[in-house]
Design goal:
By secondary structure, the protein is α+β, with helices and mostly antiparallel strands. The chain contains nine helices and four strands. Helix 1 crosses helix 5, helix 4 crosses helix 6 and helix 4 crosses helix 7. The relative contact order is 0.13.
């Protein structure tokens, strides 16, 4: 009887989890989203599409309440209904919403969306393998330690991705004539925007850099590039 090594089993488990997670995510987004229809946001999307030499940027509204934006592994861009409602209520400007879309485009362009799905599946496999191995030597504590190590790995990867997507968004917003000020002003609003949803802190507060650090990184890029466009 063929015996597979724990490492090979972990790799196979990660691949299966990736395929299943990608399928489940795509199905859920298909069932719970509609194409964004808003004249002002569509105009800004057109400006960004022109800056990227693309025919269009299609954005979908994901019908959930937490304030968030996301890029699916298949490259589609989503903002949540909760975020869109904040915009319609005047709590978020159209340019600030455009900065969210630009940020998610950065995740797609830089390959983060697909890699994150692989990372998520791989982290689950690593967590199981570590828990099994450490549990033999440190009963009771092994599982906790494995979870902590996997979570630390995920947070580190996520923070780096966020800085990269922020930089991409800054460059795109500048080229499109929108500027980076909406990007920075939105970071200053995030905590208050999400606090009113009653759903607790979103993923970016758990694994993303702090807003002040992200603003500082944007301003460092502005100084390096020598261009700061305030916007319209």
């Amino acid at each position: 009887m063929l015996k597979l090594s724990p490492i090979l089993l972990t790799i196979l488990y990660g691949l299966v989890m990736y395929k299943f997670s990608a399928w489940r995510t795509a199905k859920q987004l298909d069932n719970q989203s509609t194409v964004l229809q808003d004249a002002e946001l569509e105009r800004l999307n057109e400006d960004m599409a022109n800056a990227l030499d693309l025919p269009q940027i299609r954005v979908h509204v994901y019908e959930i309440e937490p304030v968030n934006g996301l890029a699916a592994p298949d490259g589609r861009i989503f903002i949540t209904r909760g975020f869109f409602n904040k915009y319609k209520a005047g709590e978020v400007s159209a340019e600030e919403m455009a900065s969210v879309i630009a940020h998610e485009l950065g995740h797609v362009a830089l390959g983060h969306s697909r890699r994150r799905m692989i990372d998520f599946s791989g982290q689950n496999a690593i967590r199981i393998a570590l828990a099994s191995m450490l549990g033999r030597f440190i009963p009771g504590v092994g599982v906790w330690l494995a979870n902590m190590l996997a979570t630390m790995l995920a947070a580190r990867l996520s923070r780096q991705d966020e800085y990269e997507a922020d930089a991409y968004a800054s460059a795109l917003l500048t080229k499109a004539g929108i500027g980076t000020e909406p990007q920075k002003s939105l970071f200053n609003k995030l905590e208050s925007l999400t606090a009113s949803t009653g759903s607790g802190p979103p993923a970016w507060f758990l694994s993303h850099p702090k807003s002040a650090e992200r603003i500082a990184a944007i301003e460092a890029n502005e100084a390096k590039w020598g261009t700061t466009i305030i916007g319209r």
